[in-house]
Amino acid sequence: MTVSNQLTTFTVELPVAFDPRWNRIPGITVDGTTVTVDPEKYFFRFENSTWLLCDWQRIADELLGIEETAQTAVEQLALEFVKTHGFSTPNAGQVLATAWEVYRYLFRDEHLPSLDLPKVTADHLRMLREAATFMALNKVELDGHISNVGPCWFFPAATSVVFDLDEEEGGMLDEVYHGTWFNEYRRIESIKAHAALGGRLVHGCQSVPNQSGGACVPYGASMQTFRTELTRFREEWISQVYACRTTAN
């Protein structure tokens, strides 16, 4: 682990109980609705203990219902909202609490009939909500440097380990996750909702087998630097995530 900015162990109470199998991931302790994260054990790289957020209720009240126009794209709406209402916080618990609201919205059960994936269930959407909540602790700087990386950067690997998914089911779950980029209706929802986490969702993979994962990154971040750094570390850290299978509780 690379550490250059200390963050102490933190605990957050979430609205619902998380799956206890998250205890398989080093540094995560789940006890019902109580989630505790030990950064020393959880992160592969941790260099920045502040995050950019917007208040979720403000997002819900003032941004989610706004439609883009021929003059103003949804990305512009989100960027201006973050510039006006964003705030920096060292409270990692607040990051998780905000992320839970974001992903409870994006992976809500009402999407099931429109996914055209008959094997996807409400339980799969729950898995996505939980994994994406932890993913929000990852961080990318404006220059594209990837400063914080945890196991949930590698979304398919982490969900496979935690939820005992085989390759087919894990790939199916990842396709639903990718839908926030490839399905335009859901992409627009995603752009607006991710303003709560200070940016937009960016991924480094081409398809399910690639498994490069991603993070919510600030608008204007260098994607060239992001891509170069991700290529450098992905294989080593994906292997570390899968190694958690051997120590599962």
Structure description:
- The chain is an alpha+beta fold and 249 residues long.
- The protein has one domain (50-145, 152-247).
- It contains 9 helices and 11 strands.
- The strands form 4 sheets. It has a 4-stranded mixed beta sheet, with helices on one face. Strands 2-4-3 form a 3-stranded antiparallel beta sheet. Strands 6-7 form a two-stranded antiparallel sheet.
- Helix 4 packs antiparallel against helix 8, helix 5 crosses helix 6 and helix 7 packs across helix 8 (184-193).
- The longest helix is centred in the last third of the chain and has 20 residues, at 223-242.
- The relative contact order is 0.16.
- The mean pLDDT is 88.
Using DSSP, what is the number of strands? 11
H/E element string?
EEEEHEEHHEHHEEHHHEEH
Strand content: 5-15%
Helical content class: 40-55%
Question: How many domain modules?
Answer: 1
Can I get a quick summary?
43% of the residues lie in helices and 14% in strands.
Please tag this protein with its features.
9 helices; 249 residues; alpha+beta; 3-stranded antiparallel beta sheet
List the SSEs and their pairings:
Elements: E1 2-3, E2 10-13, E3 28-31, E4 34-37, H1 39-42, E5 45-46, E6 51-53, H2 56-62, H3 74-85, E7 87-89, H4 92-106, H5 122-135, E8 139-140, E9 146-149, H6 155-163, H7 167-182, H8 184-193, E10 200-203, E11 214-217, H9 223-242
Parallel strand pairs: 1-5
Antiparallel strand pairs: 2-4, 3-4, 5-9, 6-7, 8-9, 10-11
Helix pairs in contact: 4-5, 4-8, 5-6, 6-7, 7-8
